[in-house]
Write a structure and sequence with these properties.
single chain, mainly alpha, about 5% strand
């Protein structure tokens, strides 16, 4: 039974090496996101809050319905949203810096390859044959 269709295509996709690279990138990206989130929530936001009057952004909210014994509070937590926006900006900036550095390395490598002198072209076949004949004549004399 020949394996064709969706599952065959999926197996071919999974077998490619790029999938492993992508998986490693996802794991590293998740860890990086955790670090940036901590940096924003624990370092950047307290400094910004202190600079604008001691405000803790994570506590900023609009209460739509106060908590009761039976029901929890219903609120729009826009301070957490502000933290998420700042996290996004920090992550985007870091990714930009990484991509910019990678592109610069690629450009340097490209310029090095362009600066290398090209290997001399092989002489035409008739010149090679004449050279071989000359070398044989020198050996026989």
């Amino acid at each position: 039974m020949k394996d064709t269709g969706f599952f065959a295509e999926f197996r071919k996709f999974i077998a490619r090496g790029n999938v492993l690279d992508m998986a490693v990138g996802m794991v590293v990206g998740a860890a990086f996101t955790a670090i940036v989130t901590s940096a924003v929530n624990d370092i950047i936001m307290p400094v910004i809050g202190l600079a604008i009057g001691g405000i803790d952004f994570s506590d900023l909210k609009i209460v739509l319905k106060a908590a009761t014994e039976a029901d929890p509070e219903v609120a729009i937590r826009y301070g957490i949203f502000i933290n998420a926006i700042i996290s996004f900006i920090v992550i985007a900036f870091c990714v930009f810096c990484v991509v910019k550095g990678f592109n610069k390395l690629q450009d340097m490598k490209k310029h090095e390859e362009e600066a290398k002198p090209a290997a001399p072209a092989a002489p035409p076949a008739d010149i090679q044959l004449l050279t071989e004949i000359r070398d044989l004549l020198k050996k026989s004399n």
